[in-house]
Backbone:
């Protein structure tokens, strides 16, 4: 297209939706295109959930951003966000959380089939021949993962994991240990909690923590089910109470949390499944 050339407005109709190309201008051989779209909302499309329960603070809200910028223990945040995973099914919160943490710790990963020859932990390869004695992907499809399953899978890849249950811990101990891990590089915390206790949709859930703000006494949950709930700041008391909920009406055992440390260089090992 020649310099200075202009093209008149074009009106295109696609079904009931009309897209109007308002102007096309070119300068020095590089065109600038302004597109104005006007259409009725499609009945099959809907905005993601935006409302959170009282007491929770969305990370992307002004208050949530302030808490992150002023938080004292946030060494885990950027490594985790750099490898954020949205769980691929309603039951894959465990594999998604595991993949995020292993990638954040730079643990040697198997090849990710979807990405050619590049190594990366994904929800598709984190469970493999090395972990089949612990849990299989088929079992996760049916019932998800227990906290002990997550801990054992992480241990297979050489990371240090300390499993704690709310029923044998306390708010004070949880706060102390979680902050110690979140404020130092190479430390991570995964929590297993009741969604209903936080007035969220669904039963039990697993996700990593991203940061802690001392002034508000809140932890940041990097929720791996982004289609259901956003990342939120929750008070320590609320989060611990959600972890202290029984697993089921007929199972008094509580949920809990995992304290995770990076493997030492001597303990690092390639994470590849044996040939099948």
Residues:
């Amino acid at each position: 297209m020649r310099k200075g050339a202009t093209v008149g407005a074009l009106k295109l109709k696609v079904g009931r939706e009309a897209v109007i190309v308002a102007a096309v201008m070119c300068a020095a051989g590089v065109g600038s295109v302004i597109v104005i779209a006007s259409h009725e909302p499609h009945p099959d499309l809907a905005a993601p959930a935006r409302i959170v329960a009282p007491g929770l603070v969305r990370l992307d809200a002004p208050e949530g951003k302030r808490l992150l910028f002023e938080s004292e223990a946030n060494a885990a945040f950027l490594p985790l966000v750099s490898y954020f995973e949205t769980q691929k099914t309603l039951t894959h919160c465990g594999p998604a959380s595991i993949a995020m943490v292993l990638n954040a710790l730079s643990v040697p990963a198997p090849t990710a089939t979807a990405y050619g020859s590049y190594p990366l932990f994904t929800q598709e390869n984190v469970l493999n021949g090395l972990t089949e004695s612990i849990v299989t992907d088929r079992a996760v499809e049916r019932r998800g993962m227990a906290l002990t399953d997550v801990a054992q899978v992480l241990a297979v890849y050489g990371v240090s994991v300390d499993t704690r249950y709310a029923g044998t811990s306390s708010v004070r101990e949880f706060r102390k240990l979680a902050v110690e891990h979140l404020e130092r590089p190479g430390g991570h915390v995964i929590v297993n909690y009741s969604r209903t206790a936080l007035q969220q949709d669904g039963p039990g859930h697993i996700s990593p923590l991203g940061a802690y703000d001392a002034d508000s006494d809140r932890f940041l949950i990097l929720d791996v089910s982004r289609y259901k709930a956003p990342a939120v700041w929750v008070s320590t008391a609320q989060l611990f109470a959600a972890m202290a909920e029984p697993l089921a009406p007929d199972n008094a055992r509580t949920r809990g949390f995992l304290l995770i440390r990076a493997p030492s260089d001597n303990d690092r090992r390639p994470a590849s499944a044996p040939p099948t």
User: Anything to note?
Assistant: The radius of gyration is 23 Å. Residues 1-30, 265-276 have pLDDT under 50 and may be disordered. The helical segments are 62-70, 77-82, 93-104, 137-143, 147-156, 171-182, 236-243.
